[in-house]
Automatic annotation (TrEMBL):
The chain crosses the membrane at residues 12-30, 253-272, 278-298, 310-330, 350-370, 382-406, 432-450, 659-677, 697-724, 759-779, 785-808. It comes from the Bacteria. Keywords: Cell membrane, Coiled coil, Membrane, Transmembrane, Transmembrane helix. It is found in: Cell membrane. This is MMPL family protein. The keyword Zinc does not apply. It is a multi-pass membrane protein. InterPro entries: MMPL_dom, Mycobact_MmpL, SSD. The keyword Lyase does not apply. SUPFAM superfamilies: Multidrug efflux transporter AcrB transmembrane domain. Residues 188-226 form a coiled coil. GO terms for cellular component: plasma membrane.
Amino acid sequence: MHKIFRFILNSPSKVMFCIVIIFLATSFGLKNFKLDASSDALVIEGDEAFKIYRETGKIFGNSDFLIITFTPFSDLFSAESLSTIKNIGETIETFAGVQSVLTILDAPIFFQPKVPLADLMDSLKTLETEGVDLNAAKTEIINNPVYSELIISPSGNTTAMQVTLDENKLYRDLIDQRYNLLEIPNLLDSQQKELNQINRQISQINDEEAAERAELISQIRQLLRKYDAAGTLFLGGASMIATDMMSFIKSDLAIFGMGVAIVFCLMLYLFFQSFWFVVLPISNAFVTTAFTASILGLMDWKISVISSNFIALLLILTISLTVHVLVRFTEISKKTDSVDEAIEQALNQMVMPCLFAALTTAIAFLSLIMGDIKPVIEFGKMMSVGMIFAFIFTFTFLPSAMKLVIKSTNTYSLKFIDEIPTALGRFTINQGMKILSLFAILSILMIYGISKLEVENRFIDYFSPETEIYQGMLKLDQELGGTATLDILIDQPSEDPNDDLSFDGDDLFEDDLFEDDSSNASGYWWNATSLAKLEVIHDYLDDIPEMGKVLSVASGIKLARMINDDNDLNDLELALLRSVLPEDIKETLLYSYINQDDSKVRISARVLESAQTLNRKELLEKINFDLVDKFNLESDQFKVTGLAVLYNNMLQSLFSSQIKSLGLVFAAIGLMLLIIFKSIKITLIALTPNLITAGSVLGFLGILNIPLDIMTITVAAISVGMAVDNTIHYLYRYKTEAANINITNDQRVLNSHDSVGRAVFYTATTIAAGFSIFALSSFTPTVLFGLFTAFALMISFFASLTLLPFLLKFSNAFSTQE
């Protein structure tokens, strides 16, 4: 390393030229480094519920849609309001990517006058049919078991328009091919190449669809703004939420990224009182981040909601390494007039602690691969790769830049700022037992808080109440049956008890006069007995407080019963109903909820995300238990899927993987510390501040009743990654001071605080101040991530400069050969 550093200092221009060439050669990878807004970006790898979710779409039709809510200022059934609905619907149908638009104008009217079952095909009316009594139609639609909370609110003041989006059949085929290949135990080389090619195609389609959906949503919003004078309009739906989340993240990266950079510059100038000492850390961080992003782009790694803070994290970790080198340079500069000598000594003294700090931080992030969720795994890999490049550029680009721009060893810093670490050193020496007591109390609070942690949250709470997305989701929950889907697919029993029934004599209906030619019905679900069982399950789900609109074949049967003078339909009437239903209604009310051979039915429900009592895990466990215990279904006879299930699976996986990853982090860091310092005692001492930091984050979340979610759950591992830097740097400095047998342990603490303590203080306060800017975001996960990262850094700073030196001093560490 000495020779490498000497070469860098002797030929800084050559080194910079090589870095520029390498940077330019890889820079085209930046175009591939983008946000992943695909629907499977937050799904567990191999999640069976996701596979079922895909299969459900294949069997029962496309379920990807947007919802527009419209609360007119005039009566909903007035000519003006109906005209607005028609104009909006017809315009949206012309947009690229839209398959169809369903509005209240498409709702069949059955009771003007009441239509007998046998005449359904020829006698249906709609709101646009001449002579329809709109007041009577309003009452009918509100009381219709299918329409209520689907296309009209119970109050009759709000309607919903469902915009079904085009489905990409190639995408579905590729997903099927991928599943088929993944089920093969040992892939051949040719099969692995095929899988890689399929993944690339899927990734490309995801990028194209994300752009197309964003454009479509923008078009719809522009259209809706033209009708602001007619009423209140909101856009909702899973695709809109995914698109808006990406726009929030992109906005935060642009706006708050700039704000963080400005805060970093101000703080660095405050500490170093030098223009170049601001430019050097920022430049090194920028080069590292841009180069890493280029490499990741070449590897086709995308960032998602979880990894969206990758750039900010890599910036601050690179700045942290840079500041440690610069602080050491300022210390050495006071003892020499030679810039080259000061730079070289700083590099030689800092290379090993920075190397081990980078490695332990990389290990902390790499632990995230213990999870099952692809974006979390990718995030861990990204940060690990980034830390390697951060170390490389800190000891190549940084010294070259220092040699080129720093012309004097004269450095200056504000005295009152430099006295803060020294004051903490004296506080540690004089108040050691109070420090121990403080952290003991903190540990108790931490354990209490961790015991209250929950992996649950309301998705609506991700957004500020002032945002359109929040208001739209609230409107859907309160008046139109909710947003997040929950589907239950029920198969016919493996052995149909009706199969054993036999009849003597001729079969009166051997030639079924009412057979639906389009159906090869087995008849299990399409009969009065089975449908009665289904209706009981349907009503059970409908009665759960956290459930919104529930739809199934039973919804249509309830409507048919109303038409049939509130009399139950027998098998003959069911056969009649099936044969006379118009094709469009048959597709909407029948084949969206029962498959073509009647062997499988689907109950489609929505979860009320705004329900205060919502706990997805408990809700799903209750439903699964009751379907077996109350309704005597076999456990393999039904499957529960939908967005609510996928999101719950993701959260539960995050929690379990977090426990595994933290355990792995501390085991790996402990092993590395043991290798570095060759002492179990010092290893245990070094782990203590990191345990306190990670535990404080989790404990504080629990005390504040903030649930773990896609962003907060990763902060603990991230905080350990950053906290261990402080620990290693302090241990290295303290060990150096301990080698001097002529000074006391108290002086060792003060000397360490005056040197590395300054760097720890500078980095912690600079980064914490920068991350606090995220509190201004409208996206709650970003707010929490920023605030708790800042909190973790300050806890780590305080623990590293009080508890750690107290334990080292108390245990007389490094006093003998370890």
